[in-house]
Amino acid sequence: MQLFFEEEINGEVFTLDAQESNHLCKVLRKNIGDTVLFTNGKGSLFTCIIEDNNPKKCKLKIVEQLFTPVEKSHIHLAIAPTKNMDRMEWMLEKMTEVGFDEITFLKTAHIERSNIKLDRLHKKLVSACKQSFKTWLPVLNPITDYEKFITDASFHSHERFIAYVDKDNDTHLIKQASPNQSYLVLIGPEGDFSPNEISAAINNGFKPCSLGKHRLRTETAGLVAVHTLNLLNLEQ
C-alpha cells in the first residue's frame, strides 16, 4: 500500500492542501471511503478514510494511529556538498532507504558549492521516506561553517569520526564504532579535508577512520558510512 506524507496532522480529521489533494483525488483517483496511509515524518503511521475527495481540499479521517519509536542508535552525517547537487540528492535518497537520522552540510576549505536549496532536498527526503515506507523523516540542517561545527559542545556525547584518505589512516569505521550509540561522521569534499581541518577535528575529539581501501567519491563515502553503521547495529 502506498504511503503519503503530511507534516501537520492534528485532531481526528485533517485537510490536504490543493497540490496534495489534486494528486490524491485526480491523479490517483481516490474516492470517498478509500483507505490511505499517511505519516507525519515524526514516527506516526495514520490509517485514514477519505471523507471528501475534493481535488482542492481533500478531507481525511484518522481511524488508526501507530507509532514507531526511534532507533537506539542515531546517525548524523556531516558532509561537504558536491558541485553537482544531483549527486547529493541521490545520496540522500539512498541513505534514507538504508536508514539515517540527520545530515548537515559543511563549508570546508575545498568546498565545491556553498549554496544549498534545502526545499528541494527536503522534498527528496520526503519522497524517499514514502518510497521506503519510513515514518521518521531525517533532519536536514542548513550549511554550516566547518570550524564552528566541530567545536559544538552538543556533540560531545556522540561517537565522533572524521573519514579521510591517508595511508596511515587505515582503521575502518566498523572497527572503531560501538553499537547503540549516537554517531557523528565527517565526510570531506572531492579534494578531501585540508591538513589543518583534519588536525582541528582530531584536536576536538574526532577519531580518524577509514571507509575502505579505495578512494571514494563524496556521495559514495556518505552512503558507505551510513551503511556501515547500520550493519554494526543490525542485530543489536
TrEMBL record:
One of its GO terms (molecular function) is rRNA (uridine-N3-)-methyltransferase activity. Residues 72-229 form the Ribosomal RNA small subunit methyltransferase E methyltransferase domain. Its EC number is 2.1.1.193. It is an enzyme of class 2 (transferase). GO terms for biological process: rRNA base methylation. It holds the Pfam family Methyltrans_RNA. InterPro entries: Alpha/beta_knot_MTases, PUA-like_sf, RsmE, RsmE_MTase_dom, RsmE_PUA-like, tRNA_m1G_MTases_N. Residues 16-62 form the Ribosomal RNA small subunit methyltransferase E PUA-like domain. GO terms for cellular component: cytoplasm. The keyword DNA-binding does not apply. It is found in: Cytoplasm. It catalyses: uridine(1498) in 16S rRNA + S-adenosyl-L-methionine = N(3)-methyluridine(1498) in 16S rRNA + S-adenosyl-L-homocysteine + H(+). Specifically methylates the N3 position of the uracil ring of uridine 1498 (m3U1498) in 16S rRNA. Acts on the fully assembled 30S ribosomal subunit. Belongs to the RNA methyltransferase RsmE family. This is Ribosomal RNA small subunit methyltransferase E. It comes from Cyclobacterium amurskyense. The lineage of its organism: Bacteria, Pseudomonadati, Bacteroidota, Cytophagia, Cytophagales.
